[in-house]
Structures are given as C-alpha cells and as structure tokens.
Specification:
The chain has 773 residues and is α+β, with helices and mostly antiparallel strands. The chain folds into 4 domains: 213 residues, Multidrug efflux transporter AcrB transmembrane domain (Multidrug efflux transporter AcrB transmembrane fold, Up-down Bundle), CATH 1.20.1640.10; 142 residues, no CATH class; 212 residues, Multidrug efflux transporter AcrB transmembrane domain (Multidrug efflux transporter AcrB transmembrane fold, Up-down Bundle), CATH 1.20.1640.10; 150 residues, no CATH class. A 4-stranded antiparallel beta sheet has the order 2-5-1-6, sandwiched between helices. Helix 10 packs antiparallel against helix 24 and helix 19 packs across helix 20. The longest helix is centred in the N-terminal third of the chain and has 35 residues. It starts with a helix and ends in a 13-residue tail after the last helix.
Length: 773
C-alpha cells in the first residue's frame, strides 16, 4: 500500500471507528499524565534556573572559573537585603540588628555580613585592636566609621550612611532553584518579620533572589497564559469557522498534544529552564495551526461529497499529512538549530521544543480526525458559508491580493523590497547585550532594588581578577604594589562600584600600624604585620588569597550596565594587566559570572548565524522536495528573509538588545515563517498538477489555502501577543517579536511570494509537482 493510500485508509478509519479510537486515545493520555504526575510527586517539578545554565557550560573560560571557585568558593550566592532611610535612629538600628540575628539563625545560611558585625582594625600602643564599631559606638558614629573603611564602604554602607546592606551568604551547595528556594524563602520570612520604623525602606536583591523570583514568575506565567491563550483561541476559531463544535476540535486536539508533550518531558527526567518553560504555550500556539489547516481542508473536501465523511477525511489526510509534516519539521528544525549553541539553556530549549512539536504532529494527525468525526455533518459548513446573500469571509480581500500580485507584480516586489530594506537599515543599531535585569520591566521591586544598590552601594554582579604565580609570590611587596595599581585602575571605571584585594587589605593593616608608605616595604615587614593581625584575631586576606599565597583575587562588584560594557571593560583590563605585570610571569585574567554572561551572549550571536544557515538549508531541502524545481526553491526562500529584518527592527522599536531571553525569537521566526510558504507551495503544486496555468494556480491557491494561512497567522499573533502582557520582560519580548514575525511572514507569503512566482516563472513553465504522498 502506498503512503497516500495508507493515509486515506487512516482517515476513513478515524470516521468509521471513531468511538473505539477516541477511547484508546483518552486512555493513553490518562496513563501518560499519571506517569508524569508520579514523577513530579517523586522528584519534584523539573524546573531550574542556575546562573551557569544561561552562560557557556563548557570550554576553557568555564573550566578556569570552575577551578578558581574550587579554591575560593562561589561569589554569586549572596542574598542582599537593603535598608534605606534614617538608619542612625535607635529604632532603625534595632531593626537592623534584629534582622541580622534573624538571618544568622536561619537554616541554610553560611554567614551574614552587615554593619552589625563588620570589624575594623585600630592600632593602640603598637598593638592591633580589632573591634566592631556597632558594639561600642552610637549608630551614626558606627556607620560613619564603616563608611571610612575601604573594605566596607559601598559594600555594606553607603558613603552618606543612609543605605546599608545585609549580605546573607546562602549555602553555596544550594545551586538548583528547587533546593535554593526553600532556604531563601525561610530567610526572607524571618528577616521581613522584623518591623521597620517609618522612613526606612527594605528591598530584596542579589543573584539568588533574582534566580528564585524569575522561576516563580515563569511558573505563574504558565498558570495564567496557557488558559488565557486557549480561551482566546477557542473564541477566535469559533468566530472564524462560524461553528462552535467545529472550531473547538483543533483546540481540543492540541491541548491533548500538550499533555503528551509535557508528560514525555517529565517522564524522561528532562529539566525545564527559564526558556524551555515556554514550551507548553508554544505547543498550543504552533500546534493549533496544523489543526486549523486540517480542519479547513476537511471542510472543503466534505463540501465536494457531503454524504461521504469517511472519504472526505481520507482525502484530507492524504493532502495535508505531508505539508503538515514539513511545517512541523521546519519549525522543529528552527529549534534544533539551537543545539549548536554553547549555552545549556538554549540547547535544552531547542531539544524540548522540537520533541514537543514532534509529539504534537503525531497527536494532531491521529486524534483531530477522530474529534472531527464526532461533528455532525450539518455543523461543517463549506468554506466561507454564511447567511444567504452574505459574502464569504475574506474571499474578497484574497481575490484583490491575487489581482494586485498578478497585474502589478513589479510594484509589489519594489514595495516589499523597499519596506524590508528600510526595516533592516533601521535595525542596524541593534546589537548583542546581556543584563541581570533583562527579565524585569522598570518599576518592579527587584529592578528598583538593583538600581538602588548600584546608586548607593556597589551593584550586585560579582566579577574578579584572578592572579596566579609561584607560591608566596602574591604577598611580595613588589607584587602588592602591582596589584594595588591594577585595583586602582579598576576602581576608576564607572562600571565598578567596590573592590577588595590583598594589596588593599594589607595596605589598610599597614596604615593602622602607622607604617610608612601605602604598603610594607619588605617581605619581613609583610610577614610581621600579617602575624600581628592573626594574633589579634583578624583575617584580612579571607577570600582574596589562597593558603599557599600562589593565587590571589581582586574582587569587584559591578553595575548591571550590559554585556557590551562588560566586554569592553575586559578588553581594557587585559591591556592594562599586560602592561602592569609585564615580565613577571604572573597569569592575570578577569572572570566571574558577569563576564561569563557577556561572553555567552556574544557567542550566541555567532551560534545564531550558523543556526540560521542550518535552518535555511533545511527549508531549501523541503522546498525542493515539494516543488521539484531549483527555481521555485530559490523563489520560496526569498519571502522568508523578510521576517528577520522586521523582527530586528521591532527589537529597536521596543528598545531592546539581542539578549539571551529574546535571541531565540530569530530561530523561531525562521521556523514559523516557512509554515505558510509550505502550505502555499503544496496547494500551488496541486493546482498546477491539475493543469492550471501559473496565474490561475496562484488565484486558486490564495482562494484555497489563503484563508487558512490568514486564520492561522491571526491565531499565532493572538497567542504570541498575549505573552506581551507578561510581567517578565523576556516573555514579553518573545511574544511581541514572534507576533511581528508572523505578521511579516504572512505579508511575505500573501504578496511577495505570488509576485515572485508571477515574475520568476516563464509563462510556458511545466506544471509543478503536487508534492503529495
């Protein structure tokens, strides 16, 4: 039996055996949902958002950072609580002390640094005195003393003393959000149970809080947007199909497909990240398009043989199975192209989205015909059927488009090229960037807190310069002088809010002892002063020097200025470090999670270009299979370049950069844009195979498939547009950009593609292959 005959037989069986087949589909769905539920009950919700998942998770940069963290520990697990206002009042001082105690007593907390326990070193009668100003001075004096101490100024206290920070180090072994969130919530509950006096504000910030909050917002988005999108789709499809039961069938089928896809992801033990959590909405938004094309074609076939529903369904599956497979395949290819990325989050998203779309295709092709078989024949109108005397919906507009493209193809081509060129020119200013706050719109509490930290203190993003040489080399006087020069250069950058290093701490200790010059002048004096500090109970080199004194760090906290600024700073740093440490044999690198994020997004741009080339290659192969013509394949590729220019232009309009959270829109853009092209080419091939000329085939294609193309595009715009209301900027931008993509793709396929076919094919061209199984 040929594939076409097998598909016809399947279509007939779906109608004739609809009862048993529906029971089988629902039983399998219930089993899959049960297995997924058991997996969640045993292992928890498979959702995570670790910082490294958004960066490169392999290669020398990550390996170096991992090796350094093995020596010094991670610096990105500090929850930061900011207090802003009149902190010198007795009530504010008592609240600060109470919050410090509450945080220190919480499970999962390694340490708490705040003005309450910050020590300073004073010298008295040639001896060192380590004291905590908060213990023996009024709050105003204690804050002023800490603000004068380089180690604590802009880390724990602002220069004017009206902003203070509790830096709460969460157990660094708690990296997965599933493990981190309970500990973080417990700390926050204890700290925020302490009442504040009037005039004092409290803010949450820090990398672990951002991670936990983003995951929570993503979960909330799914609970809100999935039912909202489904409801909007239901209303829209019913209005456009003009029959309730007929319109709901594609939606019911795609919701079952969503259950299958999510069950497969959970049952396979795959972890969903900040990007792949969009998969459930994507399955509904993208999957419903194939459902609409199948339903629309069934309506057309049933109008030809109203009394033969099995035959109509058989012809529908024979005609639509391959085009729908190709649309699924090319869209999945867009996601699969993300597998070339060095970013774990991107690869995971590509893997899970392509898996979900493959499952969706199987379910739509097998289950939707069964659902449609339960729709009474009288509830399946012919396309455009309406009240007596009414004009078929959209038929006049599609006919007008056909006339324009066939009668004035050069004008259509020139107009499209001009608009696309203008969009591309406007989008030239868009470039790669990354920010901690890229997922937050202005005015949200976390956005406000991070900007307060940057303005009053030092920012929240950790980076550091790592130095490595022979054992003992990092405390040599000449090495300390070089480190001090490097730190001074870093501190002079507007990007850097706070620094600390062995040179700074040893220099402060030396000054406390009344030493001459900024640093000890001999190795013996360095050793003597460090010994005095150790006897006094102070550990000035904690976190900046390893026990062998072969490795050291210049710690820094930087503003969330964006990846472009960070990479420019790193390039300047490399040049300055090479100058300062020339001939010393010291290895000096600038690294940290802030650097990794900037490098990761920069690398993603290159990955994206290769991914797009891969997707276009796959699309070219699909077009060649459908058309059996090199000329038609090249013609079909051109309209699919249009959405890329408009998507880039939309980025500039909304004031966004190419970021981790929206860069995926471009691979999705190509995958989705070709869907209408595939349906157009398939129908055009059918019409040509029936002996129609080029012009007549274009008219018939627009009249036949054009309605479904418009309908699916409208639904995709609605579905993606709903995401534009998200509280997360990443989800909002994804929705807006994808909606723009669909509009641009539809216009390219309705106007540019017919015009190119009219101009690019000779009048005597042979009929194209129908591309049918």
């Amino acid at each position: 039996m040929s594939p076409g005959a097998a598909l016809e037989a399947l279509g007939r069986a779906c109608v004739q055996q609809r009862g048993p087949l529906l029971a089988l589909w629902l039983a399998v769905t219930a089993v899959l949902a049960g297995l997924a539920g058991a997996a969640v009950a045993e292992r928890g919700l498979p959702l995570d958002f670790t910082p490294q998942s958004l960066f490169m998770d392999g290669g020398p940069e990550i390996e170096r950072l991992t090796a350094i963290e093995a020596v010094f520990g991670r610096d990105d697990n500090d929850l930061v609580i900011l207090l802003h206002g009149d902190l010198a009042s007795p009530a504010a001082a008592a609240a600060l002390a109470a919050m410090h105690a509450a945080a220190a007593g919480a499970p999962g907390v390694e340490r708490v640094d705040s003005p309450v326990n910050a020590p300073v070193v004073d010298a008295a009668d040639g001896a060192l005195l380590v004291r905590v100003p908060w213990d023996d001075a009024p709050p105003a004096a204690a804050l002023a003393r800490l603000a004068a101490e380089p180690v604590w100024r802009r880390l724990l206290v602002s220069p004017d003393g009206d902003t203070a920070a509790l830096r709460i180090r969460i157990d660094r072994r708690l990296e997965r959000v599933a493990d981190l969130e309970p500990a973080l919530r417990e700390v926050l509950a204890r700290v925020e149970a302490v009442p504040l006096p009037g005039g004092v504000e409290r803010h949450r910030t820090g990398v672990p809080w951002v991670r936990v909050e983003v995951v929570g917002l993503m979960r909330d988005n799914q609970l809100v947007f999935l039912p909202v999108v489904a409801s909007l789709f239901a209303v829209t499809i019913v209005l456009l199909f003009r029959r309730v039961r007929l319109g709901l069938m594609p939606l019911f089928a795609v919701l079952v497909a969503d259950v299958w896809a999510l069950s497969a992801i959970v049952a396979l033990g795959l972890t969903m990240n900040v990007l792949s959590v969009l998969v459930p909405v994507l399955v509904v938004v993208i999957g419903v398009a194939d459902g609409i094309h199948i339903t629309a074609r069934y309506r057309e076939e049933l109008a030809l043989t109203p009394a033969d529903a099995p035959g109509a369904m058989g012809r529908t599956l024979r005609a639509m199975a391959l085009p729908c497979f190709f649309t699924t395949f090319t869209t999945a290819a867009g996601f699969l192209s993300l597998l070339v990325a060095d970013t774990a989050a991107m690869r995971t998203f590509g893997q899970q989205a392509s898996l979900a779309l493959g499952i969706c295709y199987v379910v739509i092709l097998g289950l939707l015909p069964v659902f449609l078989a339960f729709v009474p024949l009288g509830a399946v109108p012919a396309r455009g059927e309406a009240r007596p005397g009414a004009r078929p919906l959209g038929e006049g507009a599609l006919a007008a488009i056909a006339r324009l493209c066939l009668e004035r193809p050069w004008a259509v081509l020139a107009g499209t090229v001009a608009l696309t060129g203008a969009a591309a020119l406007y989008a030239r200013a868009v470039g790669p960037n990354s920010r901690l706050l890229e997922m937050y719109p202005p005015g949200t509490p976390t956005h406000t807190a991070v900007h307060l930290a940057q303005a009053e203190l030092s920012g929240v993003i950790p980076v550091f310069a790592h130095l490595e040489g022979p054992p003992g080399s990092q405390v040599a006087p000449e090495q300390l002088a070089r480190v001090a020069a490097l730190e001074a250069w870093m501190r002079a950058s507007p990007l850097v809010g706070w620094t600390s290093s062995p040179a700074a701490r040893i220099g402060a200790l030396h000054q406390s002892l009344g030493g001459d010059g900024p640093l000890p002048g001999t190795p013996e004096l360095v050793a003597q002063e460090l010994l005095l500090a150790e006897i006094a109970g102070d550990a000035p080199l904690d976190g900046v020097l390893d026990p062998s004194q072969a490795q050291a760090r210049v710690l820094a906290l930087v503003a969330d200025a964006g990846g472009r600024e960070v990479l420019a700073f790193r390039r300047d740093f490399d040049a300055e470090a090479a100058r300062i440490f020339a001939g010393t044999g010291q290895r000096v690198v600038l690294t940290g999670d802030g650097i990794m994020a900037a490098l990761g997004v920069d690398k993603l741009i290159r990955d994206l270009l290769w991914g797009l080339l891969l997707v276009f290659g796959i699309c070219a192969g699909v077009f060649a299979w459908i058309t059996r013509s090199a000329r038609l394949t090249l013609i079909a590729l051109v309209p699919n370049l249009v959405p890329l220019a408009f998507t880039l232009a939309a980025l500039r309009v909304i004031g966004a950069d190419l970021q981790t959270s929206n860069i995926v829109s471009f691979t999705v853009a190509v995958g989705l844009a070709v869907d209408d092209t595939i349906h157009f080419l398939s129908r055009y091939g059918e019409e040509r195979a029936r002996g129609h000329g080029i012009d007549d085939a274009i008219r018939r294609t627009l009249a036949g498939s054009g309605h479904a193309m418009v309908l699916t595009s409208v639904l995709l715009v609605v579905g993606f547009g709903v995401l534009g209301w998200s509280d997360l900027t990443s989800t909002r931008h994804f929705g807006i950009l994808s909606a723009v993509t669909m509009v641009a793709a539809l216009l390219g396929d309705l106007f540019l593609l017919p015009a190119l076919l009219r101009l690019g094919l000779p009048r005597g061209a042979a009929p194209a292959s129908a591309g049918r199984p």
